[in-house]
Task: inverse folding
């Protein structure tokens, strides 16, 4: 077994963290990245934006922009663009948490980095959304596992007015048969169900994609840079345009190539947690 595989922790979540994501659909892991890692990723992200503003060119092949407005710059498909991006999407703790939640070995599904800036007019509502409901889930040893997990790391400190990611807690298990508009309306009727991330720089929000979530509303005037990676079971395909750069794959170890490409899809290793669910008295 290579060091890349051996360094992945399992379990990667404490019982309290596992219980939190089980109930609410998310958990915040504070200070996952150190100041050096934060600075390197932040510098790379702002450098990409600066170059784009000056030249209009992307930083490499096999990447794309979702948004290039002054208020929201986003670069997508990161691993081959900078070593710090690759280190993030292959971070052993992040991959370990993804494996624990999915319930088996995973592949990278999505990766992007954002710079969000205050809008001239502060919105009064959140843009809550999810790309898939909880259809593709299973329960093993009393624990809830879901197909699609995301890890979003804030690169600056987030206080109550800094626009941290906002979620409707517990909605990760509500099926798509329930209209999303009704879920959102109910949450606005009881704002206690709306939770917003407040955490020091380098903290990671781990959440089910089935959880209703939204970009936070920036009221402080500060910019909000972040980096995000998403993971699926290895037998799934990457989303459109998130396929790994083929030339970059040839430079990687077997384990990292499998993580980015899903090439181990015919040998899915289930990683059910040895512990029973935290609520199980056993």
Result:
């Amino acid at each position: 077994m290579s060091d890349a595989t051996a360094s992945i922790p399992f379990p990667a979540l404490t019982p309290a963290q596992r219980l939190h994501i089980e109930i609410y659909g998310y958990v915040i892991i504070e200070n996952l990245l150190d100041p050096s890692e934060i600075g390197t990723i932040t510098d790379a992200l702002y450098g990409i934006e600066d170059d784009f503003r000056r030249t209009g060119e992307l930083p490499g092949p096999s990447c794309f922009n979702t948004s290039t407005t002054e208020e929201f710059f986003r670069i997508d498909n990161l691993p081959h663009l900078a070593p710090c991006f690759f280190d993030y999407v292959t971070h052993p703790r992040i991959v370990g948490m993804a494996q624990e939640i999915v319930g088996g070995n995973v592949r990278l599904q999505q990766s992007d980095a954002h710079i969000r800036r205050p809008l001239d007019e502060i919105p009064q509502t959140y843009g809550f959304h999810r790309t898939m409901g909880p259809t593709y889930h299973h329960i093993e040893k009393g624990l809830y596992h879901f197909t699609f997990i995301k890890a979003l790391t804030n690169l600056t400190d987030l206080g109550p007015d800094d626009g941290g990611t906002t979620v409707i807690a517990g909605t990760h298990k509500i099926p798509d048969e329930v209209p999303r508009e009704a879920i959102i309306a109910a949450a606005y009727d009881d704002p206690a169900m709306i939770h917003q991330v407040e955490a020091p720089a380098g903290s990671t929000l781990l959440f089910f994609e089935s959880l209703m979530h939204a970009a936070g509303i920036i009221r402080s005037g500060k910019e909000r840079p972040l980096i995000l990676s998403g993971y699926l079971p290895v037998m799934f395909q990457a989303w459109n345009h998130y396929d790994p750069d083929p030339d970059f794959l040839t430079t990687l170890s077997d384990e990292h190539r499998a993580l980015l490409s899903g090439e181990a899809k015919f040998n899915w290793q289930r990683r059910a947690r040895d512990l029973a669910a935290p609520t199980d008295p056993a």
User: Anything to note?
Assistant: The CA atoms of residues 234 and 275 lie 24 Å apart.
